[in-house]
Structure formats: structure tokens, C-alpha cells
Design a protein that fits this description.
Chain lengths: ~270, ~160, ~110
């Protein structure tokens, strides 16, 4: 415990972070076992994945994507890759797309396709877009998360921005994503839930996911927003440079652990 | 100092509870409009007061700890030949502390070939899930298991 | 003027023969509203709306039925077994407490 505090004793807003850590450590280190999932439970939840209500939304997203935009064929053409290479390519998002001049997520690619085809743009924060995003990402199921942050200067810069966003302590409590998700903190229990290693749980591979507490399909950026809300950090807008950068950084965490794409996921 | 505020507001939403806190699904809090039926009353309604035997022929699978009380998987497998002469007529899923103790009833026929049923139910808090099984000969079997419901998490 | 409800019927395993016992899974998007929750915006209680009965039929003949209450999860899932008698069509008919009726079908295509 002391050593942990010692490591944190570098940098500003330390007093607050220290108090936070020793509080959760004291209160809930032992509670960890109490709330850990047994193997039998883990098996049950794995079975639930096979009957995920979100599959219905993914199927619906596929129908809309096919009918209104031309499906995989049109997507491959837009991204200038072959249909055969499309799944692997999708598994590397977010990406710098030259003709869009930005590092973008799959949802922004869908929007760009709509603009190119003279169709009405679907809002990023809409059920229709969440379904289409989930469908397109599911085309990459079983592929390894293969984001390449060295591919060009733009994705490199986005990765750096993402890392800074992840590590910067801000908000009323002086917390950063790293405060709860760093390697030495994961496993500790906060509010009955063990804090997860975002690479190990493959956030980048398993979101969009069906959230049981929300009974709906949720995207990773929306999940980040929920977390920011609770940690009293000012929420970053969906589709913004910083939010995409955060997705880029978090994708590298899954890549490091050789995680695969498996959409839709199933989460608490 | 700030410390106490930390615990309260790290996740601004709901209160920390390892054991269930009252929710609108519990009988005493159910406002008008919700179905209210206690576990005991439900059993009587189903069995008509007939004897119920605890049996390990009824395999009830539920999680020990439900990550989320809104979606708790329940799986039941009853050992039965499932022939016209001897089959599982119905499986009733009940809970001991929900305001409405009934969740779902399934009426099977020999075509089902197995005394199996699975679904997902809501649990207002830590309590037992009960499988009340009616066989074609009119007898009743039962299996019950406790499920701990944690209410918490961030986001 | 409601859109047909979204749902899915799945057979497990996907490939089977006549005489096999398969799993028939049904998932449906439905709020399963208990009638005890308040709408955060209006402060009013959201009226109860939940599936209350389901029937599984093969070529129009029911072989499994269910009674369901609001205590079943939102966007519910139901799973039963069935011995495959031959080719046919499985239909799931379901109604909710407000009288809304829906139906979903899937062809049963055993190989051999």
C-alpha cells in the first residue's frame, strides 16, 4: 500500500488522488474476492453472449446499411480496399482516411458515404447510427485488433493525443482514466465492481455492446462518456478529435493483448 | 475532509450497496399498478396446496453473483423421459423477494423432448430463484438457489 | 401504427437431421415495463407493458406455451428444446398486456 502511494507521489493534484486510492484500497481490497465471478458464473455469462439482444440491432443496422448505402461493396469501394481485405481493414479503425483529411471512426466513414451519395446524414449520436456502426464493425469479427499507430503522422498524432487524454487528471476530483485503469489499480473493487484492464477486456474489440443496465446497444464512446460523468470529468463530445484519439489509444491496449473483434459484446 | 466526499461521489449516480437496496420491484415499495403476489401465495395459486418435493431431478442453474439484477440468466433441466405417459407438464419460475413472485411459466409437451427451459429474469435484490415443476402425474417438484445481486458499478 | 416488433428465432445447432433434438431460441425487443418505474423527465409512472403470453407452433399446431410476467428481463430471451419431426415452419406468437399481438416465423429445414 505504501509503495503504491509512493509511486503516485509525483505530480500535482496528488493529495486528492492519494486519498482516493487509499480509500478504495482500504475499503475494498478484501471485497475483491467477494465480488469476483466464479467459473460457473463466467460460463453462464458466456452462454448469454450467444443470445445477445444486440444481435437484432446489428441485423437491423445491416439492413439499413445495405439498402440505403450499398452495403460492403460500397464500403470497400469508398475505403479503396478489396472486399476480401475489408474485414481486416475495419479491424484497424480508427484510421486516417486521406480523402476525409482526418483520423476517423467507422461511424464517420458511414456519414461520409451518406454525404458522397447525396443521402441524409445520420447523427452520430442516434440509434440508427449505433446499429450501422455495430453492423459494419461486426464484419471484422474474429479479426485481431490491428490498429497501426505508426502508419502515418496523423494516426501517430492521434495516438499521442489519446494517451494524453487518458493520462490527464482533470475535473473536480483530479482523476484521469489511468487513475482507475492503470496496471496497479486494476482488480481493486470500486462500487462492487472490480476495475477492469481496458486491454484485457478488449474494449476496442467488444464495443459496441449490449449493456444490461441500459437494456440497449451502446457504443464505446458513449461508454467513455458515462464513465467521465461518474468520475466528474467534463464529458468529451462524440466524434470529437479527443474522443477519437481516446479510441485510438484504447485500441492499442487491446492490440497489445492480441484481442479480437467480437461484436456485439455483452456488458453489465 | 475530501475523503468522505470521494466515496460518495466517485460515481455520482446510485448509492453503494453490496446487499440490495429497496427498489420499486420489492413488495413494500411497489406503487399501485404493479402486480403484487408473494412467493407463498404464488405457490398456493400454482399447486392448489398440494405437496411439493425438493428434488435433485430438477437442475436449476443461476449465477451465484448476478452482475446486474435486471438480466439474470435462469436455466432449468428436469430429468424426464418426456413421453406421453411421463413428461414435464409445466415449469414455473418464481422468486422469493420480488413484489411479484412469478416470472414465467412454461407449459411443455412431449414434442419438447427435454424438460428444459431457459430465460432471463429481473431480481430486485439478493434472493432465491425457485423452479416449481409440475409433472404429468400431477405431482410437484422444486429446486431453489440463492442469487446475490450486486448493485453498483460506474457508468 | 406500430412497426412489427423486432425479434429473432434461432435453432441450435444450425444444421440438424430429422429426429434430432434441437434448441429453439427466441429473442425479442420489448420493454417489459413493470409499471412501477418513473419516467425521469416527466415524473410520471411509465405504464406497464410486458409480454404476457407466448405460443410456439409447428405448422400451426402449438407445442409449447408460456405465461410471462413483467419480472422477466427487458428484451427477453426464451429457450426450449424440440425434437425435429420433419420439414416445417416454426411460429412464435406473442401478446402483451396491452393487447399488442405479434408473430415471428422461421422455416425448419432438416438435412436428411
Amino acid at each position: 500500500m505504501m509503495k503504491r502511494n509512493g509511486i503516485l507521489f509525483t505530480g500535482k493534484k496528488v493529495l486528492l488522488s492519494l486519498a482516493f486510492l487509499s480509500t478504495i484500497s482500504m475499503l475494498q481490497l478484501n471485497a475483491g474476492e467477494q465480488f469476483a465471478m466464479s467459473d460457473a458464473d463466467r460460463a453462464m455469462y458466456k452462454e448469454m453472449l450467444e443470445n445477445n439482444p444486440a444481435e437484432i440491432y446489428v441485423e437491423e443496422g445491416g439492413e439499413i446499411f445495405e439498402e440505403s448505402l450499398g452495403g460492403e461493396e460500397a464500403l470497400a469501394k469508398f475505403l479503396e480496399v478489396s472486399e476480401k481485405d475489408l474485414p481486416k481493414y475495419i479491424a484497424g479503425f480508427p484510421r486516417y482516411i486521406k480523402k476525409l483529411g482526418n483520423v476517423v471512426g467507422i461511424d464517420q466513414v458511414i456519414q461520409a458515404m451518406q454525404v458522397e451519395q447525396g443521402k441524409e446524414k445520420t447523427k452520430l449520436k442516434s440509434g440508427k447510427m449505433f446499429s450501422m456502426l455495430a453492423y459494419v464493425k461486426s464484419l471484422a469479427n474474429d479479426e485481431l485488433v490491428n490498429i497501426d499507430v505508426e502508419a502515418d503522422e496523423h494516426i501517430k498524432a492521434s495516438y499521442e493525443l489519446g494517451k494524453i487524454t487518458y493520462m490527464t487528471a482533470r475535473g473536480g476530483r483530479g482523476l484521469s482514466c489511468n487513475s482507475c485503469h492503470s496496471a496497479d489499480i486494476v482488480g481493486l473493487v470500486l462500487r462492487t465492481q472490480p476495475l477492469p484492464d481496458l486491454g484485457e477486456v478488449a474494449v476496442a474489440g467488444t464495443w459496441p455492446a449490449y449493456r444490461m443496465t441500459k437494456s440497449s446497444l451502446r457504443t464505446p464512446q458513449r461508454r467513455f462518456q458515462g464513465c467521465m460523468n461518474n468520475a466528474l470529468l467534463k464529458v468529451i463530445p462524440i466524434g470529437s478529435k479527443e474522443m477519437i484519439a481516446l479510441e485510438v489509444y484504447i485500441a492499442t491496449l487491446a492490440k497489445e493483448k492480441n484481442k479480437k473483434i467480437a461484436i456485439p459484446g455483452l456488458k453489465r | 475532509m475530501e475523503r468522505r466526499n470521494f466515496i460518495k461521489s466517485i460515481c455520482a449516480a446510485t448509492a453503494v450497496a453490496a446487499v440490495a437496496s429497496p427498489s420499486a420491484l420489492l413488495a413494500k415499495d411497489a406503487p399501485k399498478g404493479g402486480n403484487v403476489l408473494t412467493y407463498d401465495a404464488a405457490v398456493v395459486a400454482i399447486t392448489g396446496g398440494k405437496a411439493v418435493t425438493d428434488s435433485d431431478k430438477v437442475k436449476l442453474t443461476v449465477p451465484e453473483i448476478a452482475e446486474n439484477g435486471a438480466v439474470v440468466p435462469v436455466k432449468i433441466n428436469v430429468e424426464s423421459p418426456m413421453t406421453d405417459a411421463d413428461y414435464v407438464k409445466a415449469i414455473h419460475i418464481l422468486t422469493t423477494k420480488n413484489g411479484n413472485a412469478r416470472s414465467a411459466d412454461i407449459m411443455l409437451t412431449p414434442m419438447n423432448a427435454k424438460g428444459y427451459f431457459a430465460t432471463r429474469i429481473k431480481l430486485a435484490g439478493t434472493q432465491d430463484v425457485v423452479a416449481l415443476v409440475e409433472l404429468s402425474d400431477g405431482s410437484f417438484l422444486r429446486a431453489a438457489k440463492p442469487v446475490k445481486v450486486t448493485i453498483g458499478g460506474c457508468g | 401504427m406500430a412497426e412489427a416488433r423486432k425479434s429473432m428465432i434461432k435453432f441450435k445447432p444450425k444444421k440438424f437431421k430429422v429426429g434430432d433434438v434441437i434448441k429453439v431460441d427466441f429473442i425479442v425487443i420489448h420493454p417489459m415495463e413493470t409499471g412501477t418505474r418513473k419516467d425521469k423527465k416527466t415524473g410520471k409512472i411509465k405504464p406497464a407493458k410486458y409480454i404476457d403470453s407466448i405460443t410456439f407452433s409447428l405448422d400451426g399446431k402449438p407445442f409449447t406455451s408460456m405465461k410471462v410476467w413483467e419480472t422477466v428481463s427487458t428484451n427477453p430471451y426464451f429457450s426450449v428444446n424440440m425434437k425435429v419431426p420433419g420439414k416445417g415452419k416454426i411460429t412464435v406468437d406473442y401478446t402483451d398486456n396491452t393487447g399488442e399481438k405479434n408473430s415471428k416465423s422461421k422455416k425448419l429445414k432438416p438435412k436428411g
